[in-house]
Design a protein that fits this description.
3-stranded antiparallel beta sheet; 90 residues
Length: 90
């Protein structure tokens, strides 16, 4: 029973530590202008699994994902910004 308690406590700590280290914002450098992703703003509006499939972890963002299913398609569906200059700032 004591081992189970320790395992549960470690699991709880690991889960909360993962969530606690997520940055409030992430900046992606790009030749079209840097893109600042407001993680906190997005997480206040939607559930984690909208972007993080399975266990929350860092999401790899590339041009295709940002301009497709990962970002832009969601922005279209939820009336978010979709023009180049809305995200890319020089």
């Amino acid at each position: 029973m004591k081992k189970l308690f320790v395992v549960l406590m470690l699991l709880a700590f690991a889960t909360s530590a993962t969530l606690a280290i997520a940055a409030d914002s992430v900046t992606y450098e790009n030749k079209q202008g840097k893109v600042v992703f407001n993680h906190k703003g997005h997480s206040d509006k939607m559930k984690c699994d909208a972007c993080h499939k399975g266990t929350p972890a860092k999401v790899a963002v590339d041009k295709d994902g940002a301009h497709g299913a990962l970002c832009k398609d969601c922005h279209k569906a939820k009336s978010g910004p979709t023009k180049c200059g809305d995200c890319h700032k020089k």
